[in-house]
Design a protein that fits this description.
The protein has helices at residues 44-58, 61-71, 78-85, 99-106, 126-129, 136-150, 156-170, 180-200, 210-223, 237-251, 269-286; strands at 6-8, 22-24, 28-30, 39-43. The protein is mainly alpha-helical. It has a two-stranded antiparallel ribbon. It has a two-stranded antiparallel sheet with strand order 3-4. Helix 1 packs across helix 2 (61-71), helix 7 packs across helix 8 (180-200) and helix 8 (180-200) runs antiparallel to helix 9.
Length: 301
């Protein structure tokens, strides 16, 4: 009979965690950190308790996950976090954000093992995510900024989704290229993505169907020219300037025009109509001989 491998959890001396201590190795998350021996230092139950503690402390799932991952030396990866938020089970229900669901998403691809080993590989700005130490006024100011940018949302996690999605779509775009009209379209795209997420999570209370929202999303992506699914490559300054000018001409209404009379009747066709065309028609119909007085000096030809 094979011997069951066990390990002592670091939460056994904690008044908050109150762990029993020794547990089977299968009760721990696998760790890719070079500083661990194959598993994290806290058992799965303790990880959940740590996450719950920080969630109650800061009322922010993102911050709670960040702090928990820091304690077990697992990197916080922005795209993995987004994928975890969008994750659903086989019944189509949303999978609640937890340490387990995040690590499961991170470990889904073994190629990540050589890229994301420990917390130092975190690819987000920790100081932007970490709200610890913010005063009440600073928190209120941040909420006001989010509401001004995205409108009033149901949950703080919705703002996280919108901000992450916006940053993902606009990554690599210079600020000078984000004209007000393009900026509004990117925001509309993110809000549509949030609506799709709410529909999939069965928490959408509006009347629009998923087909209508998807159609509107595809239209916005087409206008922004990000529906080609081509491999992104760095563009030259000339290409960026041309693309911006072309987009402005195609999508800005009305078109810029300094003087509407500037090119009116450019070839004098309208002004010559009475003097030339109508006179010829009159001569043809009634047999008159009304000819212009053309001399070599005033001839156009």
């Amino acid at each position: 009979m094979a011997k069951t491998e066990i390990k002592m959890c670091c939460g056994h001396n904690s008044d908050i965690l109150q762990c029993v201590g020794t547990k089977k190795i299968t009760d721990y998350f696998v760790s890719w950190s070079k500083f661990d021996n194959g598993t994290v230092k806290y058992c799965k139950d303790c990880c959940d308790k740590i996450f719950k503690y920080y969630l109650e402390e800061y009322n922010d799932e993102k911050v709670a996950l960040l702090y928990t991952l820091a304690k077990i030396d697992v990197p916080f990866i922005g795209q993995v976090y987004l994928d975890t938020l969008e994750k659903t089970n086989k019944f189509g229900n949303k999978v609640p954000l937890s340490v387990s669901s995040y690590i499961s998403t991170l470990h889904k691809s073994q190629t990540n093992k050589d890229i994301y080993s420990d917390f130092s590989d975190t690819d987000c700005n920790v100081f932007e995510l970490d709200i610890k130490g913010k005063t009440k006024s600073e928190k209120e100011e941040e909420i006001n900024r989010l509401e001004k940018t995205w409108g009033i949302q149901d949950d703080i996690s919705d703002y996280d989704f919108l901000e992450e999605t916006f940053n993902r779509y606009t990554d690599g775009i210079d600020k000078e290229d984000l004209t007000p009209s393009r900026l509004d379209l990117y925001k509309d795209l993110c809000l549509n993505r949030l609506t799709l997420r709410k529909i999939n999570d069965n928490r959408y209370t509006g009347e629009e169907t998923i087909d209508k929202v998807q159609s509107r999303t595809a239209k916005i992506m087409s206008i922004l020219k990000i529906d080609q699914f081509e491999i992104a490559k760095k563009k030259s300054d000339i290409e960026r300037i041309l693309e911006r000018q072309i987009w402005e001409i195609e999508n800005t209404e009305p078109a810029e025009l300094v003087d509407k009379e500037e090119y009116k009747d450019f070839l004098n066709i309208e002004s010559d109509w009475g003097k030339g065309i109508l006179r010829c028609v009159k001569n043809l119909l009634i047999g008159s001989k009304d000819y212009p007085n053309i001399t070599r000096e005033n001839s156009k030809y």
